[in-house]
């Protein structure tokens, strides 16, 4: 159970502690932040509201610890990570319990998130050993005008202190996807978890604590992003920010200093369906891609662009599959669970009502109880409706009927977002042409968009982000190249 057994030391009375200098601490602020259970809509947990002074101390400790960590042999760093991964998987149930209560993730998916996170940490340790174990040797005489008098040895070195800020929808997985590459590369790590999901993240951090990482190397400060976010992201002690979330990331990019940024932001992933597509496959992917975790996934299908000639048939198949979705609490493993907050539910409802007023066809009756919104497919959506462009992050999906593949690509590219997209067709040549034309970080052919497997490159264009994730890319991104040049005494000096 959460907050008990090995996790007993991370809670003080009703309030979870924050993690700094290798210890669990109460904030001097004396204030806490309440986490509302999306299903019951009552307070579930409380976390510390950390102060700026506490952030300063965390940064100082991180800086000092990082210097020693960078000199810790790579194989040893990998061993620590493997140990943390094993502990994380061993304690998957209490962590999953937090995910169910804080973000209403269906119980089975919550366990999967923790196990996947353990696997990600281990894979990163292995990948890091290979990638960081190699450097380059360059010789000078390949560049015009040079003799072979200089030998350049280059290798990857850590950046310093990495600030990791994940979003609510994968507070464990999207935290470790930042923590593990930062640590294997020799960086220190400061985590600011999302408020909804903070307690799951604190449990996860305790698994790293139990693995015995040096004091100060890893810390986790809690509090509302709107209150301590700016102080963290503009802190002079931070050498890299890895952020996943919504538009907040755009604001952070404008304020952050001259440091590497990894920004994985929102999406409006388009699903283009051509006339020759396998409509059963299309329907299965629209339902899975659009409604899993109630549509609260960055790579959820967020707009269907379908050829008019097959639209009626496809919509009928999607409706039939949607009728089988179970709706209810996450504890019962329902397919559709309450969305994360009342304000999210209100925002989703606003998009639905705008579409209704402008004449969209509702394939099901719109229904909402508290934060629980019944899955809804909106047909005959037109570009003047907000839902054609905005990201609902909920179980409502617009269908726009198109007359040509070009029209579909045009709608996709007119979006401010460019995360992923997908195309369904049996014609691989057409699929490749459409993939080339879509301005998104990834295009899936004959499958719904998805992040993962976690070692695949993952990136967004335009307002969907900068930089690229995926294990190898994140390790590379959290390092810089260091060169040492050996100069021979004289280019004319030769032996033999
Ligand atoms: P969000 O509101 O942008 O919050 C993300 C994180 O930023 C949270 O930890 C939040 O903390 C923190 N934050 C808030 N204000 C901040 C500030 N001023 N400075 C620094 N940090 C601040 O996003 P969300 O609602 O959690 O997540 C949903 C969004 O994430 C969607 O748009 C989704 O598409 C996107 N997403 C993208 C990807 C991807 O890989 N591209 C993956 C998953 C989700 P608090 O919780 O305390 O406010």
TrEMBL record:
It catalyses: D-glyceraldehyde 3-phosphate + NADP(+) + H2O = (2R)-3-phosphoglycerate + NADPH + 2 H(+). Its EC number is 1.2.1.9. Keywords: Cytoplasm, NADP, Oxidoreductase. Pfam families: Aldedh. Residues 24-483 form the Aldehyde dehydrogenase domain. Belongs to the aldehyde dehydrogenase family. It is an enzyme of class 1 (oxidoreductase). It is found in: Cytoplasm. It comes from the Eukaryota. InterPro entries: Ald_DH/histidinol_DH, Ald_DH_C, Ald_DH_CS_CYS, Ald_DH_CS_GLU, Ald_DH_N, Aldehyde_DH_dom, ALDH-related_metabolic_enz. GO terms for cellular component: cytoplasm. The active site is at 264. GO terms for molecular function: glyceraldehyde-3-phosphate dehydrogenase (NADP+) (non-phosphorylating) activity; lactaldehyde dehydrogenase (NAD+) activity. The keyword Amino-acid biosynthesis does not apply. Its main location: cytoplasm. The keyword Transmembrane helix does not apply. Important as a means of generating NADPH for biosynthetic reactions. PROSITE patterns: ALDEHYDE_DEHYDR_CYS, ALDEHYDE_DEHYDR_GLU. This is NADP-dependent glyceraldehyde-3-phosphate dehydrogenase.
């Amino acid at each position: 159970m959460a907050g008990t057994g090995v996790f007993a030391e991370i809670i003080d009375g009703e309030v979870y502690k924050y993690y700094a200098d290798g210890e669990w601490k109460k904030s001097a602020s004396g204030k806490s932040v309440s986490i509302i259970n999306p299903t019951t809509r009552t307070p579930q947990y409380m976390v510390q509201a950390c102060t700026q002074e506490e952030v300063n101390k965390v940064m100082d400790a991180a800086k000092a610890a990082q210097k020693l960590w960078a000199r810790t042999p790579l194989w040893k760093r990998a061993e620590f990570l493997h140990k943390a991964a094993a502990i994380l998987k061993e304690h998957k149930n209490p962590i999953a319990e937090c995910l169910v209560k804080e973000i209403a993730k269906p119980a089975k998916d919550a366990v999967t998130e923790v196990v996947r996170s353990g696997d990600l940490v281990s894979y990163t340790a292995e990948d890091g050993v290979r990638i960081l174990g190699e450097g380059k040797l360059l010789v000078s005489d390949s560049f015009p005008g040079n003799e072979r008098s200089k030998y350049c040895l280059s290798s990857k070195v850590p950046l310093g202190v990495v600030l990791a800020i994940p979003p609510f929808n994968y507070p464990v997985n999207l935290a470790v996807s930042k923590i593990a590459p930062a640590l294997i590369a020799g960086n220190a790590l400061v985590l600011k978890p999302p408020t909804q999901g903070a307690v799951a993240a604190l449990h996860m951090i305790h698994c790293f604590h139990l693995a015995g990482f040096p004091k100060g190397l890893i810390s986790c400060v809690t509090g509302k992003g709107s209150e301590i976010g700016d102080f963290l992201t503009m802190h002079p002690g931070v050498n890299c920010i890895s952020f996943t979330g919504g538009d907040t990331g755009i604001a952070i990019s404008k304020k952050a200093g001259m440091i590497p940024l990894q920004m994985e932001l929102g999406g409006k992933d388009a699903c283009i369906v051509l006339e020759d597509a396998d409509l059963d496959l299309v329907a299965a992917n629209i339902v899975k891609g659009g409604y899993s975790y109630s549509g609260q996934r960055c790579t959820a299908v967020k707009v269907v662009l379908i050829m008019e000639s097959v639209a009626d048939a496809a919509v009928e198949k999607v409706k039939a599959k949607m009728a089988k979705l179970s709706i209810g609490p996450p504890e019962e493993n329902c397919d559709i669970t309450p969305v994360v907050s009342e304000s999210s539910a209100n925002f989703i409802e606003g998009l639905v009502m705008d579409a209704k007023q402008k004449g969209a066809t509702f394939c099901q009756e719109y229904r909402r109880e508290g934060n629980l919104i019944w899955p809804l497919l909106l047909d005959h959506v037109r570009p003047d409706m907000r839902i054609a462009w905005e990201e609902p992050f909920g179980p409502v999906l617009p269908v726009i009927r198109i007359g040509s593949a070009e029209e579909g690509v045009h709608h996709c590219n007119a979006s401010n977002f460019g995360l992923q997209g997908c195309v369904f067709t049996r014609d691989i040549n057409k699929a490749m042409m459409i993939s080339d034309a879509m301005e998104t970080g990834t295009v899936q052919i004959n499958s719904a968009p998805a992040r993962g497997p976690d070692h695949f490159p993952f990136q967004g264009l335009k307002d969907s982000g900068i930089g690229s994730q995926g294990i190898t890319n994140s390790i590379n991104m959290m390092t810089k190249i260091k060169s040492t040049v050996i100069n021979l005494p004289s280019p004319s000096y030769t032996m033999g």
